[in-house]
Design goal:
Layout (H helix, E strand, L loop, with lengths): L5 E4 L4 E4 L2 H14 L9 E9 L2 E10 L5 E7 L8 H14 L3 E5 L4 E7 L2 E4 L6 H6 L2
Parallel strand pairs: 5-6
Antiparallel strand pairs: 1-2, 3-4, 4-5, 6-7, 7-8
């Protein structure tokens, strides 16, 4: 019998099954903590929430200093196209979460969006945590 591989999730503080999607999630947690300088204690992975009578799970939520959701991240397996269906999914999640920033990634491509007067606009750079806090 083959033993399943696991990876340490620093946000859930436990080993989790190393699926292709989980590999992307853990890579993006590294991006958040490294390049974006998000403190680890301001992130949660696999966070459950309700929208109407349905239960959903956000892959990663980033919180502001008042513990309000600031960014939701949707992670997909590398072979999944980041198409309108994926964007619709994260926009549905945002109906319940009401965040300022959205991100979708498959580990090969990543798109980030910031709320503006017209809805959400594509970000042409990776924001630092402090920048996201200032844009609230």
């Amino acid at each position: 019998m083959q033993e399943s591989m696991t990876i340490w999730d620093p946000l859930r503080k436990k080993d989790v099954a190393l699926t292709p999607e989980e590999r992307v999630r853990q890579w993006f947690i590294g991006v958040l903590a490294g390049e974006m300088a998000v403190p680890m204690h301001m992130m949660m992975s696999e966070t459950g929430f309700r929208l109407g009578d349905k239960q959903f799970r956000a892959d990663i939520l980033v919180y502001d200093r008042a513990a309000h959701p600031l960014m939701v991240v949707e992670c997909k397996r590398p072979e999944v196209d980041l198409n309108q269906e994926v964007l619709d999914q994260i926009l549905r999640y945002n109906m319940a979460l009401d965040v300022r920033f959205l991100a979708v990634t498959n580990g090969r491509k990543t798109y980030m969006f910031a709320r503006n007067d017209a809805g959400y606009g594509f970000m042409n750079h990776v924001p630092k945590y402090e920048e996201m806090l200032c844009r609230q």
